[in-house]
Amino acid sequence: MPLAEHLRELRDRLLRAVLAIVLATIVAAFFYDQLLDLLTGPYLDAVERLQAAGHEVDAKLTFSGIADPFTFAIKISLVAGIVASSPIWLYQIWSFVVPALHRNERKWTLLFSAIAGPLFIIGFVTGYYVLPKAIEILISFTPDGVSNFNTLPDYLSFVLRILLVFGVAFEIPLFVILLNAMGAVSAKQLAGARAWIVIATFIFAAMATPSTDPITMLFLAVPMTVLFGIAEGIAWLVDRRRARDRAASEFGRYDDDEMSEITIERDPEDERPSRLDDD
To answer: What is any one of the record's Gene Ontology cellular component terms (predicted)?
Structure first.
C-alpha cells in the first residue's frame, strides 16, 4: 500500500478506537455511583479495620475544590471507558499491525495476546485484593490527634499505580518465555541465574509497591516467583523440543560452531593453461 493509504487507514482505525472509548465513557458515567463504591471500598474497609482494632484514626476521602467532584466524575468514567473498550481499540491496533507481519510472527503475536490479557487481569485483581491491607498499614502511621484527609483524585492515582504495577509485573514471565522461544535465553541460563532472579524479584516488588509493608511486597513477589518457575519449566520444554528437531534434521550431527566440509568440484576446462603461462 502507498504511504497515503497507510496514513488513511491509521486515521480510520484511530477514529474507531477513540469513538469506542468515548461511547464506553458515556455509558460508564451512568454507573458512576457503582464505580465510586468499587473505588472507595478498600479505603473504607481499611479505616473500619483500624477503628475496630482500637485505633482512633480520623481518615476521610475529600475534595479540595468546587469543580473537583465534576472533574473526578469525568476522570473515573474515562478510566472505566478505556478499560471497558480495550478489546475494541486493541483490535484496531492489531488489525493495523498484522498485515506487516509474517505468518510465524502472527502466530507468536496471537499467543502473546491470548496469554498477556488473562495474566494482566489476574495481576489487576490481585492488586485490588491486597489494596485494603496496604491502605490499612499506611494509615496506621498517622499520629494520634492528627487527621488524615486524602483527596479522591490523589487516591485514584494511588490505586491505579498499585493496580498497574501488579498487572505489568505479572507480564514479566511471559517476556521471559518469548525470549526463550526466540533463542535469546536458554533454560540452562535461566536455571543458572535462578537465585539472582528471585532476589531481583523481591527487590522489584519492594520498590514497585507504594506501601512499605512486607505483606504487599509478598503478595507481588511470591506470584511473580511462581510465574518465573513456570516460565523456566516451559523454557526447558521448548529447549528439549528444539534439540529433538535439530537432531532429526540432516545437519543435526554438526555442532553450531563446527566447521563444515566444503568440496569444490573443478571443471576440467578450468585447468587449461593461461596465456600468461606462455611468457
So the answer is: TAT protein transport complex
